[in-house]
User: Which sequence fits this backbone?
């Protein structure tokens, strides 16, 4: 990871990570915090996607699919309660004993390490559904670039895969960052934002969503293209909501689920999002630090004030009509990308060998060519 950070800063010396998302419960978080110096969050996207894809694939009955996915979500939601995971898993096995294909998959792949996964979810802040939608859109974008090739069989070769990663995926990432920072190539940025489920959910009017206020078992979302089509979202208000649209049935986070959960946030009786719940539990745990431990107390106060400031900025951005006014009031004023990359550059003539000087000159020429396009 140190080499990764060095590689990023060799292109942009002022680069730093705002946050680091992991989706593997076995990942070590301390080296990430030490090297990148940023918060580490856990993303439910991989877990949710794996469970939903296998439920749809191995269970034929739509009602069984809905209930099974809901029960798995209840097990995850129970990490902050007094529920016994072993008892919940045993009850799940008994209730769905006839779903042999899925239960064999779940017992072999997840049950042996389920405590590790739940413990990681409990100890780390959880990323929101907006983050899951962004990860999913970027994942789809990478797959399109990687597999849109006439030499698909060559990807089994390591040299061809490395070539694909370094020439197309890596350059595409820096082009996206340049477009975002310099307001250039607006179509690149807009196409990516429009591809996220979160952005598509914002295009659905509130009037298109109908909640089951009696039992709160489902919600209906009317299609904007064809009013005769109505999508049913089971278990509304949860990250483990189940929609019957094609995109959701492939294991993805669809716009209907996100829109329904947005509506449920403003209605009483629905459980809060897991990201909010994890943030609440984190604040509670910080407040319980022993008063006699001055170091822990100071660290807790620092974390609390930092999170409070982030919440205030987020609320201000959400309520503001013009995001430019909010950015101008922030204490840190960003310069242009060219100015930031020019500051602190090492003297290549004195410290770099000839090969590295040549590589540095090539990078400089590439950046100049890119700037001329704008």
Assistant:
């Amino acid at each position: 990871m140190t080499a990764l950070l060095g590689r990023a800063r060799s292109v942009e010396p002022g680069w730093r990570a705002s946050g680091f998302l992991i989706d593997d419960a076995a990942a070590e978080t301390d080296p990430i915090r030490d090297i990148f110096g940023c918060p580490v969050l856990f993303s439910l996207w991989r877990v949710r996607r794996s469970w939903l894809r296998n439920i749809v694939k191995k269970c034929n009955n739509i009602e069984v699919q809905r209930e099974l996915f809901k029960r798995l979500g209840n097990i995850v939601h129970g990490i902050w309660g007094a529920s016994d995971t072993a008892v919940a898993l045993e009850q799940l096995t008994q209730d769905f004993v006839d779903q042999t294909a899925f239960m064999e998959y779940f017992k072999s792949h997840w049950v042996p390490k389920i405590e590790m996964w739940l413990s990681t979810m409990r100890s780390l802040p959880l990323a929101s559904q907006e983050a899951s939608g962004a990860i999913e859109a970027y994942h789809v974008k990478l797959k399109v670039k990687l597999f849109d090739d006439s030499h698909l069989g060559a990807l089994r070769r390591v040299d061809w895969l490395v070539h694909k990663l370094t020439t197309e995926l890596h350059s595409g990432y820096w082009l996206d960052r340049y477009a975002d920072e310099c307001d250039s190539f607006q179509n690149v940025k807009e196409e990516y934002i429009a591809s996220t489920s979160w952005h598509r959910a914002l295009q659905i009017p509130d009037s298109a969503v109908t909640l089951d206020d009696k039992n709160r078992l489902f919600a209906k979302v009317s299609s904007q293209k064809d009013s005769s089509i109505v999508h049913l979202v089971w278990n509304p208000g949860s990250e483990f909501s189940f929609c019957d649209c094609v995109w959701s049935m492939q294991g993805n986070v669809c716009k209907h689920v996100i829109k329904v959960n947005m509506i449920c946030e403003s209605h009483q009786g629905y459980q809060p999002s897991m990201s909010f719940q994890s943030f609440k539990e984190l604040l509670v745990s910080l407040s319980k630090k022993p008063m006699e431990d001055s170091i822990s107390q100071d660290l807790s106060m620092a974390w609390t004030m930092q999170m409070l400031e982030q919440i205030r900025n987020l609320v201000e951005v959400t309520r503001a009509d013009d995001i430019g006014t909010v950015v101008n009031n922030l204490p840190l004023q960003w310069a242009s990308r060219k100015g930031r990359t020019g500051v602190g550059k090492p003297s290549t003539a004195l410290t770099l060998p000839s090969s590295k000087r040549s590589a540095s000159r090539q990078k400089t020429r590439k950046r100049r060519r890119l700037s001329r396009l704008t």
Q: What stands out?
A: The mean pLDDT is 77. The first strand starts at residue 20 and ends at 22. The beta strands are 20-22, 40-42, 209-211, 218-222, 230-234, 242-243.
